[in-house]
């Protein structure tokens, strides 16, 4: 008689995984219904460190509905980086995490150990945020004495950022040194650099800070949509541009030792996740231009084709550079739900034109 082999039972899903997926679905459903309970649920997940639930819910919403995806993503990012609090019977306060991305040009690259050794420069840089009008005159600002690289910034999860904001609030309100384990954990150290001593290096770094102010501070009140609002944002942009000029020497002293020459290209100051998003886009664009520029230098004149590939679930932009006979280079970038595709294509056109490419075609690929 032939013996039958006992089959090993199929592995059962982990209860933890099941619960995470279930909570993500519940959160996604709240976003789809635009339920008032959504923000309470998001904050509860942040307090409990349930980043997997938050990320899973955002991804579910991404595939379900554009409006729900935007609502949920904005809620998670805002509540992770902004905290409302009240000390005693005082006014309601707001503290948020902001970041300033900058591209640092140097010979041989930056050295992490040289950063933030000049205390006078650091103190002057702190004062400049309110003095130059980047933050309100009554705001309290603290800046982490570390220039983060991209990997460190991307390693800061939603709940960790939320904990860092709470730690910064405690330090600013209590005016004494307090334990800040989440903040210390965020300084993981830069990724290894491959630059040689004589290499022309371009590196992305972030200044990370926290601003505490009254929740009703009129300095931050944005006028209703219209000409006044446009003028408000234009004035803010001008103040920031002026600050980048006056603060550049201070930032240089904070990033490198005396005698080191740096060229700084500042990106716009934004809340944590907004700054991270804009820096990724700019980094991709710079990498594409460097690759295409090298191809043009090696092969001469070329034409470019910008391809938009859209499916029911995703969209991406592709850029191909063609010489007389074949493809010389290409670059691809995934688009987020709700991105302004026309604006993205125009940005690519401008970048390609900067490289001297006049022959640019647009192709649309359907699902």
- Percentage of residues in strands: 15-25%
Overall number of domains = 3
Supply the helix-strand structural class: alpha+beta
Low-pLDDT residue spans: 1-10
Biggest pleated sheet: 6 strands, antiparallel
Number of helices: 11
Termini separation:
56 Å
Could you spell the SSE succession in H and E letters? HHHHEEHEHHHEHEEHEEEHE
* Large-scale geometry: globular
Q: Radius of gyration, Cα only, in angstroms?
A: 24 Å
Fraction in helix: 40-55%
Q: How many DSSP E strands?
A: 10
User: For the residues shown, what is the average pLDDT?
Assistant: 91
SSE topology:
Layout: H1 15-32, H2 38-47, H3 51-64, H4 66-81, E1 82-86, E2 92-107, H5 119-131, E3 140-148, H6 150-154, H7 158-174, H8 181-186, E4 200-214, H9 227-255, E5 263-266, E6 270-271, H10 272-299, E7 303-310, E8 315-322, E9 327-334, H11 341-354, E10 360-365
Parallel strand pairs: 7-10
Antiparallel strand pairs: 1-2, 2-4, 2-5, 2-6, 3-4, 7-8, 8-9
Helix pairs in contact: 1-3, 1-4, 2-4, 3-4, 4-7, 5-9
What does this structure look like?
There is one protein chain. This protein is α+β, with helices and mostly antiparallel strands and about 375 residues long. The protein folds into three domains: about 20-80; about 85-270, no CATH class; about 280-365, Nucleotidyltransferase, domain 5. Helices cover about 45% and strands about 20% of the residues. The chain has eleven helices and ten strands. It has helices spanning about 15-30, 40-45, 50-65, 65-80, 120-130, 150-155, 160-175, 180-185, 225-255, 270-300, 340-355, and strands at about 80-85, 90-105, 140-150, 200-215, 265, 270, 305-310, 315-320, 325-335, 360-365. Strands 1, 2, 3, 4, 5 and 6 form a six-stranded antiparallel sheet that branches. A four-stranded mixed sheet has the order 9-8-7-10, covered by helices on one side. Helix 2 crosses helix 4 (about 65-80) and helix 4 (about 65-80) runs parallel beside helix 7. Mean pLDDT is about 90; it is low at about 1-10.
